TrEMBL record:
Protein name (Swiss-Prot/TrEMBL): O-acetyl-ADP-ribose deacetylase (Regulator of RNase III), contains Macro domain
InterPro entries, per database record: Macro_dom (IPR002589), Macro_dom-like (IPR043472)
Macro domain location: 1-171
PROSITE patterns for this protein: MACRO
Domain of life: Bacteria
Length: 171
């Protein structure tokens, strides 16, 4: 079955869903933007788990994803995925961003949980064009079928992304 798609404007740390996705960086050691917000709101446990993963496998490559528990957040797990830094190689960047969504959805499936929330990966400090990023995100989610994942939530923090998602999801 195809999961239901929902759009919410707001702060992903406040969203009640089984999984929230973090737009992490390859160090997995936290950063600004949504990454900083998740670590601040979720507490030190999340960083400890990220460090354990780092010690085991090294850095997380762009487009890949790892999972930790969610500390003090209402979610059960956090999937940390590393989006591409936009660099005008549209094809390569698009592929890598698509991988973030694909790999996160695959992980959600393997965790056997029903709801997953995504921020607008790469569209902040990593400067990925918002319209193109939204098209890729929606395309990947619409192509995803699952026996367990029932709902995918796009959490838009800024007005521009919200407007773009609203328009694209209507089409
Ligand atoms: P990246 O480095 O992947 O670009 P950023 O965190 O800089 O990551 O930005 C990614 C997106 O996350 C941006 O669209 C930004 O508006 C959004 N964002 C920032 N804080 C939050 C938050 N608390 N909840 C949801 N989205 C957020």
């Amino acid at each position: 079955m195809k999961p239901i798609i929902e759009l919410i404007k707001g702060d992903i740390t406040k969203i009640k869903s089984d999984i929230i996705v973090n737009a992490a960086n390859s160090s997995l050691l936290g950063g600004g933007g949504v990454d900083g917000a998740i670590h601040r709101a979720g507490g030190p446990r999340i960083l400890e788990e990220c460090m354990t993963i780092r010690n085991r496998q090294g850095k997380c490559k762009t487009g890949e994803a790892v999972v930790t528990t969610a500390g003090n957040l209402p979610a059960k797990y956090i999937i940390h995925t590393v989006g591409p830094i936009w660099n005008n190689d549209q094809e390569k960047c698009s592929q890598l961003l698509a991988n973030c969504y694909k790999n996160s959805l695959k992980l959600a499936e393997s965790l056997e949980l029903k709801t997953i929330s995504f921020p607008n990966i790469s569209t902040g400090v990593y400067r990925f064009p918002k319209d193109l990023a939204a098209k890729i995100a929606i395309h990947e989610v619409k192509n995803f079928e699952s026996d367990v994942v029932e709902k995918v939530i796009f959490v838009c923090f800024d007005d521009e992304n919200e407007k773009i998602y609203k328009k694209l999801l209507k089409e």
